[in-house]
Design brief:
Number of helices: 18
Oligomer: single chain
Strand content: 15-25%
Helix content: 40-55%
CATH architecture of the largest domain: 3-Layer(aba) Sandwich
Number of strands: 12
Low-confidence stretches: none
Distance between the termini: 41 Å
CATH superfamily of the largest domain: NAD(P)-binding Rossmann-like Domain
Radius of gyration: 20 Å
Shape: globular
CATH class of the largest domain: Alpha Beta
Structural class: alpha/beta
């Protein structure tokens, strides 16, 4: 009888708790890591997480093998490490994990946002990690979920298909083969440039937030984010940003889905334009806006999603005045230089690569001494 795949889930937030509980319910050995021990104390005492779900979805008590705030302990038995933290924390997790990784382990970022796997690999190498590990990233998070108490989580939906790619893409088949024992929903995402540049949150989240800044601050987010927050004018801005993203992707050989194509694929909705398509998406009804502008839609999605897209544009000669404007507005609102904090190509170690070299780097076992 073959040994069950051992999972470690990094992060005990909304997504991490749901994933750990579900994996436990499926009978896999699961370790849950959180940097702050107090955050997982109740889970440790209980020995697992109580999971509620939609009708027909997974529910029950997800037993965990181990709950820890020590990275060495968290990684000791892991075959697959599921990183479920905001992408702004990927760098810290890579630094913390680097001394404790071993050959053969698989790390999956849920999701990578833009260039997450590239950043993770660069940080690990710079930290002196020589273990032969495989890093992969999901295009989006597989669950819609939330934490409902110290040791409780709820899943609202599990996506039917989520693209995933390894770095390099020659390892994607291996990752899918292992992870499919728990998640058959993951499919081949081509390579990490495809998963990165099909990042729809980069287009929707920051722009809608910033263009509704006054309303968010005056109402505390008491309006429907997508339904009320996306007017015809707002949607026209989103269309410009989306065209720029697709053009950047094309410049590096990637055929990215447009926002309209994504809405059709994900929700089977369409319209004469993006405004109509968003309004026709009934799943957006009831989703409230953030209560504050100090929200991950800005402090995560700007530096970890839009800055790397703009950096790719600058390197490969694409004009992205719309995306640059959104980044600049975020810098003004937060008194922060998101260019300095974000994932630029130089920080990712790929700033010197030509388009063909970049393609080889993400597709094949080629490191260019990065």
């Amino acid at each position: 009888m073959s040994k069950k795949v051992a999972f470690t889930v990094i992060g005990a937030g909304n997504g991490g708790k749901a994933m750990a509980a579900h994996l436990g319910l499926m009978g896999f050995p699961v370790t849950l890591y959180n940097r702050t021990a107090a955050r997982v104390e109740a889970i440790k005492e209980l020995g697992g997480i109580k999971l509620e779900s939609y009708e027909g979805g997974p529910r029950g008590f997800g037993k965990l093998e181990k709950v820890t705030s020590h990275m060495a302990e968290a990684l000791a038995e892991a075959d697959i490490v599921m990183v479920v933290v905001p992408s702004s924390a990927h760098r810290d997790i890579a630094l913390s994990a680097a001394p404790h990784l071993r050959d053969g382990q698989i790390i999956v970022l849920h999701p990578g946002r833009t260039c997450g796997a590239i950043e993770f690999k660069k940080v690990m190498r710079d930290a002196g990690c020589s273990a032969n590990v495989t890093i992969a990233e999901a295009e989006t998070f597989i669950y819609a979920s939330r934490s409902e108490g110290p040791a409780e989580a709820r899943i609202f939906r599990i996506k039917n298909a989520v693209p995933l790619a390894a770095l390099p893409a020659t390892r994607t088949k291996k990752v899918l083969g292992v992870i499919s024992k728990a998640y058959p929903e993951f499919i081949d995402g081509v390579n990490v440039l495809h998963t990165s540049l099909n990042n729809m949150g980069a287009i929707f989240h920051p722009a809608i937030s910033l263009l509704n800044a006054g309303r968010i601050e005056s109402t505390g987010g008491e309006f429907q984010f997508y339904v009320d927050g996306v007017t015809p004018s707002t949607a026209r801005v989103l269309e410009v940003l989306d065209r720029e993203r697709v053009t950047v992707a094309a410049a590096i050989g990637v055929r990215a889905r447009t926002a309209m194509e994504w809405l059709k694929l994900a929700y089977n909705v369409s319209g004469d334009d993006l405004f109509q398509a968003i309004q026709n998406q009934t799943g957006y009804y009831g989703i409230k806006a953030p209560s504050t502008l100090n929200h991950r839609y800005i402090f995560e999605d700007i530096p970890m999603s839009l800055v790397p897209i703009a950096s790719l544009a600058k390197r490969y000669g694409v004009s992205v005045r719309g995306i640059d404007s959104i980044i600049r507005l975020a810098c003004f609102v937060h008194h922060t230089d998101y260019w300095r904090r974000g994932r630029t190509l130089d920080k990712l170690g790929i700033g010197q690569l030509s388009v063909s070299e970049l393609a080889r780097y993400v597709n094949e076992e080629e490191d260019y001494n990065l």
